[in-house]
Structure formats: C-alpha cells, structure tokens
Inverse folding.
C-alpha cells in the first residue's frame, strides 16, 4: 500500500473548468496521501487554483463526500473541486 | 414511477409533484410548496437566461439526504425535491420542494429548512448570461 505510484481522478466544476481548462484529469501520485498533501500538489500543478485553495474558497469532496485536510486519499478515489454552490 | 427526489433537464408539473407527495398518506392535512423561478434582474443587470450545472452523483445524493434528514427531524409525512439543470429561460421553473404533513406549521418549517439546506449543501452551480457576457454566480443568498 505504501510508496506505490497510483492514479486518482480529479474533477473540476463550474468556473474551475474554465480556469483549469478541463473538467476531468487523471493524476498520478504516491498513495495513500492526505487531502492537505494533495492540495499542495494541486497548487503546483495548477497555479491558477493556488489562491482559491489558500483562501479556502473551494470545497473539496472525496468520493462524493465533503473532505477535510486530514481525509486520506486512496487509489481510484474521485476528488472533486467545488466552487461555492449557487443552486436553488 | 418517477423518484420523489431528482435532477432533470426538462420542466416539471407542479400539480403532478404535489399529487405524488400528497398521495403517500391519507393523514395528509397540509402541503407546503416552494417554487424557485428564473428572474430577469440580478444585481441590477438584465439576465437573458440561466444555465445550471451539477455534480451528478453527489448532487442527487445530497438532495436525498435533505429529504431523509427532513423526515427524521420534522413532523412531516413526505417530501419531494426536483431541481432542473441545463439552460433555463427567464420565468421558467428551477426548483420545486413539496412537503406534506398533518398540520401546516410542520410543512412550512420543513420546506423553508429544505430550500436553505439545498442552497448550502448541494453541488449545483448557476451561470447567468447577461448582455455583457456570462458569469458564474458565486453567492447563495
């Protein structure tokens, strides 16, 4: 389980699709990791998201449940970046 | 039979949704309804139309959770929630919440709670098309 390079799926919604330029990306990284560590990988990979991540303007879900910095990310997980909701 | 809780592109029939919720029990004595529609002015700007996007699996899951939590926490009989996605013209329906209960106050309270909770927890996003371009709406008042 440790030290292995694996793949997770990243999803970007609404305004983030435009910023990143894609709505879905497969990311290779060493798993397991935590969301906190993943966020620093994302900030390097997508500098356009750095400010939003630092200011905590985004919610992040792992397998469709809202996650926190300590959430553990495993192989095959789906991590979605969610700007503030505006439904209703 | 359509689900009581769902997200769909096409418009919904308010009467059919009310009937679906009302008919679940002969004890129903009150039905409260919230209908959200597309208005033409936002922050002083004229809106041409709206476009909604959602995170399919998660948004439906969150709506089902709202219904379950409402049934657990309010003295109600049934709740239906329908939200549209895709392009929506001005004046069209966006979201419908229907709540049935024995007495009106429980239905009113659960309905108010449900629409606030939907705006807070459900991954749905609105884009407004104006004369000056398209903008993703960031707040959820």
């Amino acid at each position: 389980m440790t030290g292995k390079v694996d793949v997770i799926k990243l999803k970007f919604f609404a305004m983030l699709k435009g910023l990143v330029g894609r709505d879905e990306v497969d990311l290779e990284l060493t798993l397991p990791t935590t969301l906190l560590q993943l966020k620093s990988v994302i900030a390097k990979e997508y500098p356009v998201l750095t400010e939003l991540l630092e200011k905590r303007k985004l919610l992040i879900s792992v397998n469709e449940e809202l996650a926190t910095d300590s959430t553990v990310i495993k192989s095959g997980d789906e991590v979605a970046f969610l700007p503030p909701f505006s439904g209703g | 039979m359509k689900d009581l809780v769902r997200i769909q592109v096409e418009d919904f029939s308010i009467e059919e949704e009310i009937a679906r919720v009302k008919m679940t029990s002969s004890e129903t004595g009150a039905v409260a309804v919230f209908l959200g529609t597309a208005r033409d002015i936002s922050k002083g700007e004229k809106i041409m139309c709206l476009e909604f996007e959602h995170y399919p699996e998660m948004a439906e899951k969150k709506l089902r959770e709202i219904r379950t939590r409402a049934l657990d926490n309010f003295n109600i009989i049934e709740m239906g929630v329908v939200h549209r996605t895709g392009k929506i013209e001005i004046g069209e329906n966006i979201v419908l919440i229907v709540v049935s209960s024995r007495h009106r106050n429980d239905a009113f309270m659960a309905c108010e709670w449900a629409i606030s909770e939907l705006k807070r927890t459900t991954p749905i996003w609105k884009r407004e098309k104006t004369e000056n371009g398209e903008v993703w709406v960031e707040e959820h008042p």
Observations:
- The longest strand of chain A covers residues 4-12.
